[in-house]
Amino acid sequence: QVEEEFPRQGDESILWVDDELTLMQMCKQTLENVGFKVTFKTDPLEALETFKMYPETFDLVITDLSMPKMSGFDLSRELSSVRPGIPLLMCTGFGKSLSKEQTETAGILKVISKPISSKDLISVIREILDRRAV
């Protein structure tokens, strides 16, 4: 039934980094149902290592702000140093308290607040990927 509700959206590859396993499992399934390939990591250091090994594999990275070992800002800066221009999206419960300057400095294109509906999540991802393709 999910396929009927959300038509196929693409086949791009997404690296998603968040320590909330339950939330991520639901989002991963939703995104895969509409065609995206999702690599999910709960550990930002492990995500960074994966990205360093395969920097061209990913079309978009989604990161949480608050995680053990490394913040989403620090991770975003590290990812951008490995591959400048990688589209970065932050998905956080603290979105309202972030300044535009903080996010831009880290190379983050957009901040979405948790909880987010599947429809809005898919829409934001598509918007960012389409902007990159222009």
Sketch the topology as an H/E string, one letter per element. HEHEHEHEHEH
Estimated structural class = alpha/beta
Give the strand tally: 5
- Largest sheet, described in full? 5 strands, parallel
Number of helices: 6
| Mean of all residue-level pLDDT scores | 90
Helix content: 40-55%
In whole angstroms, the N-to-C terminal distance is 32 Å
* Beta-strand content: 15-25%
Strand order of the largest sheet: 2-1-3-4-5
General shape: globular
Q: Measured on Cα atoms, how large is the radius of gyration?
A: 14 Å
Low-pLDDT parts are none
Short account of what is shown:
The protein is 45% helix and 19% strand. It is an alpha/beta fold. The protein has a 5-stranded parallel β-sheet, with helices on both faces.
Task: Kindly list the characteristics that best describe this protein.
134 residues; alpha/beta; 6 helices
Would you give an account of this structure?
- 45% of the residues lie in helices and 19% in strands.
- It is an alpha/beta fold.
- A five-stranded parallel beta sheet has the order 2-1-3-4-5, with helices on both faces.
- The mean pLDDT is 90.
How does the SSE layout of this entry go?
Layout: H1 2-5, E1 13-17, H2 21-33, E2 37-41, H3 44-53, E3 60-63, H4 72-82, E4 88-92, H5 100-105, E5 108-113, H6 118-133
Parallel strand pairs: 1-2, 1-3, 3-4, 4-5
